[in-house]
Amino acid sequence: MFRTMAEGDLGRVLKCLDDPSRFERLFEATSYRPDWTWVAADGDEIKGVAVWWGFPTSERPLALDTLWAAPDVDDPVGLWAALIRRMPPPFEYHLFTSPGREKAPEVTLRLAAAELAGLGDVNERLRYQWTDDDPLPRRSTRLTFEPEPDDEEFAALFAAIAEDSLDVATREGVARLGALEHSREDIALYKQMRGPRDQWRVAFDQDGQVVGAALPSANDGGPVVGFVGVVPGQRGHGYADDLLAEITHVLAEDGATCIRADTDKVNKPMAASFERCGYQVFAIRIVASFPPGEVAGS
Ligand SMILES: CC(C)(COP(=O)(O)OP(=O)(O)OC[C@H]1O[C@@H](n2cnc3c(N)ncnc32)[C@H](O)[C@@H]1OP(=O)(O)O)[C@@H](O)C(=O)NCCC(=O)NCCS
């Protein structure tokens, strides 16, 4: 029987999960919710679990976070696909693994289930991390950084940066909504994150021309690089390093001992910049999504 989690299920669901304390923390914060957690139950026994995540303020979940099946389930792929189909799209599936384990069965079986349920577009994201054991990257001497309180100015800057972006979600968002509307949606998402809005910066070169945007931020796991972007006319000078170094310094000055960031594997200039700035890949986030145009209303 497929049903959402009932009050009495909590203890049994926690026993199924690799990281029960994370579940409890996010459940408390309402990022996980009973009606966003589906179980496959056989009498009193839980045979499968699917957990979706959203912001505490979200009306609907944004991402499927966890798929679990009991070891005696014969067809976990079929069970997971059936669980995933319970939640109306759109949402993404975020699957975390270690570098080198992208083709391991715990990954491929879950991706097969996601594909069966319609989430057939797969994007690999590299998860980078800087820790205070690493030296701080050199702070820019060729750019200056200014705050910009007007969200519409930031949206216009994000829209300019979106041109020829190699970031998969940006390309999809621009195709779906147009550059400005997609950028407004992004700004709204960044504002829901934990990092203070007043640390967002616009970067200028020595002639006073706009170079790009640098957004330090934070999520449930701690400080993160929110966004780095260079406008098309200024690309090719390695300015991503200056923006990333600025973000790293701002967060480290605020006491961050570990800073994390994701970028698409296909976004090679950005991945190279993380590596030049002393960030290291510590995990892979595989994102499966519904192909654009296949989700009614999106
Ligand atoms: C990622 C990004 C910040 C890199 O910009 P940058 O600092 O100018 O990059 P670099 O100067 O290190 O570029 C290295 C090379 O990649 C090329 N390059 C940079 N961005 C490119 C793009 N979007 N498309 C194609 N080539 C690009 C540069 O022209 C340069 O080529 P060259 O070696 O032949 O001269 C920029 O592409 C960008 O703003 N993209 C959109 C936003 C984004 O993806 N942000 C990261 C996700 S959070």
Automatic annotation (TrEMBL):
GO molecular function, one term: acyltransferase activity, transferring groups other than amino-acyl groups
InterPro entries: Acyl_CoA_acyltransferase, GNAT_dom
Keywords: Transferase
Pfam family for this entry, one: Acetyltransf_1
Coiled-coil regions, chain positions: none
PROSITE patterns reported in the protein's UniProt record: GNAT (PS51186)
Signal peptide annotation: none
Domain N-acetyltransferase as annotated: residue spans: 161-298
The protein's name in its UniProt record: Protein N-acetyltransferase, RimJ/RimL family
